[in-house]
Amino acid sequence: VQLVESGGGLVQPGGSLRLSCAASGFAFNVYVMSWYRQAPGKEREWVSAISNAGVNTYYTDSVKGRFTISRDNAKRTVYLQMNSLKPEDTAVYYCNVRDDRDYWGKGTLVTVSS
């Protein structure tokens, strides 16, 4: 299993970013995919998840209405569109898939600052 995140960077408050996670090594279209984040000095927290066909999506309360998760099974990629970003969204964002255990990418850093 390999998960490779991209799309992070520095953005001003109120700005937008789109994260991508390219997956390989497993049957991507069978699994729920998730995004987590870990802010400096804090524990990793769940952010969002999407069902295998992309029909059902789930969000933690703090990002509802601002973030949108999606997936393209043909491209084996899951996305996280992040709008109206706030300084408290600053974190390393990780892609996750759970099978016999949790698999993680290396993460992509999102910094929201003026």
Q: Write down the overall mean pLDDT.
A: 97
Uncertain runs are: none
Query: Helix count, per DSSP?
Result: 0
Sheet-strand content, in percent, reads over 45%
Helix-strand topology string: EEEEEEEEEEE
DSSP strand count: 11
Largest sheet: 7 strands, mixed
Instruction: Choose one word for the global shape.
Output: globular
* Class by alpha and beta content: mainly beta
Instruction: Summarize the amount of helix as a percent range.
Output: under 10%
The value of Rg in angstroms is 13 Å
Assembly category: single chain
Termini separation:
37 Å
Keyword list:
114 residues, mainly beta, four-stranded antiparallel beta sheet
Task: Give me a quick take on this structure.
The protein is mainly β. Helix content is about 0%, strand content about 50%. Strands 2, 4, 5, 6, 9, 10 and 11 form a 7-stranded mixed beta sheet that branches.
What does this structure look like?
The protein has 114 residues and is mainly beta. It contains no helices and eleven strands. It has strands spanning 2-6, 9-11, 17-24, 33-38, 45-50, 57-59, 67-72, 77-82, 91-98, 102-104, 108-112. Strands 2, 4, 5, 6, 9, 10 and 11 form a seven-stranded mixed sheet that branches. Strands 1-3-8-7 form a four-stranded antiparallel sheet, with no helix packed on it. 29% of the residues are buried.
